[in-house]
Amino acid sequence: MKRATTRSKEATHERIVETAARAIRRSGYDGTSVANIMKEAGLTHGGFYAHFPSREAMLAEAADRAGAEAVAASSRVAATAPPEQALQVLLRAYLSKEHVKSLEMGCPVASLGSEMPRQAPEVRRAATRRIKEMIDVIARQLPDWGQPDAHEHALVTAATMVGALVMARAVDDSKLSDALLKAALKHLVPGGA
Predict the structure, then answer these.
(1) Domain for residue 173, yes or no?
(2) Running DSSP on this structure, what letter comes out for residue 142?
(3) Dihedral sign computed on CA atoms, order 104, 105, 106, 107
(4) Are 183 and 164 in contact (CB under 8 A)?
(5) Minimal CA–CA distance to 75: which of 134, 128, 18?
(6) pTM, entire model
(7) What CATH number is given to the structural domain containing 154?
(8) Structural domain boundaries enclosing 159
(9) Burial category of 34 from C-beta neighbours within 10 Å (exposed 0-12, middle 13-18, buried 19 and up)
(10) pLDDT single digits (tens) 133-177
(11) Is residue 177 part of a domain?
């Protein structure tokens, strides 16, 4: 009986984290309340502290989950292409109209980056770990992977990707949004945009 209770508690915990990972990308850290997460997860507010010692602990797990999902998605996209085309395929998927619209399931760095400096250390630590993984996924797709300047190339590529997505989401002009995505692709994949 105890094992079934433990599994049920773990499943409930997972449901809360999954719900919170979507909510932070949709509404930001400050727009994500414990009460709303619990309600969206189909649970009562009172049960929250059976799963987390604090709101910050939940946000840290949510940031970690959102980042892990983004890294896994990027890795899957890159793996669908031949190695010499993996970077282009990854960039096209990231810098797409679909990704602009997919706020709730998209890149958490683009959704939450500007809020990070004001978050608790455990939230920032989780996000930082996943950002490093994202940079590594990009680095492994670069033609100069393993060369001295490859890490810097990956940093610039990641920063350009995230910045272009943030700006494409920010504007209320669809032509400008599309132009931002296209310009970033053209810069990152010369001749391949």
Answers:
(1) yes
(2) S
(3) positive
(4) yes
(5) 134
(6) 0.88
(7) 1.10.357.10
(8) 55-188
(9) middle
(10) 999 999 999 988 888 889 999 999 999 999 999 999 999 999 999
(11) yes
